[in-house]
Write a structure and sequence with these properties.
The chain has 15 helices and no strands. By secondary structure, the chain is an all-alpha fold.
Length: 311
């Protein structure tokens, strides 16, 4: 059986930590980088191979990424957990944290169900390098089109921002500091929030970015770039963590034999890089757009497809 070297583990762990949060699809990078490099990388790191130790390895990386998100948004999650408890205790949804807690729960249900039913099929049937390269290119095109549509609907976004500003003294913004993007997210209707959460189902396709597609959904619902990015990270945390914990028995079982040290090394790299990535993106999206990531996905997808075709 092929094994994962410590060098491969650290490199792929670092890439996972970055690409899971950047709107460029971590699954695409997990599939395409080994395939393009070839040799032992392609043999050791094959996500679609049955009984592959690489799958157990990726489990550890997902848990590490989710841990980084929890650490970065620890104050937000503390308010959300308290909001969840008070909403049940007092049977109300009158504060921002209470609304946001239930918004995240409801918005996570569609992708949770779809993941349980479709993840294995999508990974084994569609998780091939050629197909992944095509979907990564499509991801770039979707981000680019979505960004341009966002610019055309700028007036609508301004109206949504004005409505949020007018609602500053509503109970829904209570317990969030002035200007906190979580306050704007909490004011989304449950229908819009669920719609944004449901977009994550598309990320089951290898090459489609979870954070990117959720950001587009958030912007379509009237959120700014930063608010949409924040919502996508909050939505992703329980999904990534649950997916990792659900498959943790694979890592503790026979598939994890011989690679647990590599998993720890890769997970450490993933945790550090994810923490740096989310901090960077939270600042980046205050003033900038998805366009550079869209261009990257198109170039990376086309280049990978070309290399694999000519090899």
């Amino acid at each position: 059986m092929s094994q994962i070297s410590y060098f491969e583990a650290i490199v792929m762990g670092a890439i996972q930590g970055i690409s899971e949060l950047f709107p460029v699809s971590s699954l695409a990078h997990s599939i395409l980088i080994p395939a393009v490099l070839g040799g032992s990388w392609a043999a050791d790191l094959n996500v679609s191979a049955p009984e592959s130790p690489y799958l157990a390895f990726i489990v550890g990386l997902h848990v590490a990424t989710a841990a980084a998100l929890l650490l970065f948004f620890r104050k937000d999650w503390a308010l959300i957990v308290v909001g969840f408890v008070t909403s049940i205790r007092y049977r109300r949804l009158s504060t921002g944290p209470e609304r946001l807690a239930w918004l995240l729960i409801v918005a996570t249900i569609p992708v949770g169900i779809a993941g349980l039913l479709l993840e294995h099929t999508f990974r084994t049937v569609l998780g091939q390098p050629y197909i992944t390269a095509i979907f990564l290119t499509i991801n770039g095109v979707v981000l680019l089109v979505g960004e341009r549509f966002r610019r055309r609907s700028h007036a609508a976004a301004e109206r949504a921002a004005a409505e949020r500003a007018a609602a500053e003294h509503d109970d829904t913004s209570q317990d969030f500091a002035d200007g906190d993007p979580d306050a704007a997210i909490a004011q989304l209707s449950f229908a819009k929030g669920t719609g944004v959460g449901a977009t994550q189902i598309l990320a089951l396709l290898p090459g489609i970015s979870r954070s990117g597609i959720a950001m587009l959904g958030g912007m379509a619902a009237g959120l700014t770039h930063r608010e949409a990015a924040r919502f996508s990270f909050l939505l992703a945390t329980p999904v990534i963590l649950a997916a990792g914990l659900l498959k943790l028995p694979d890592l503790l079982g026979p598939l994890g034999n011989g690679i647990r040290g590599q998993v720890l090394a890769g997970s450490a790299a993933s945790f550090i890089c994810a923490l740096l990535a989310v901090g960077f993106l939270d600042r980046y999206f205050r003033t900038r757009t998805l366009t550079p990531f869209a261009v990257y996905c198109i170039l990376a997808g086309v280049s990978a497809f070309t290399v694999l075709t000519l090899r």
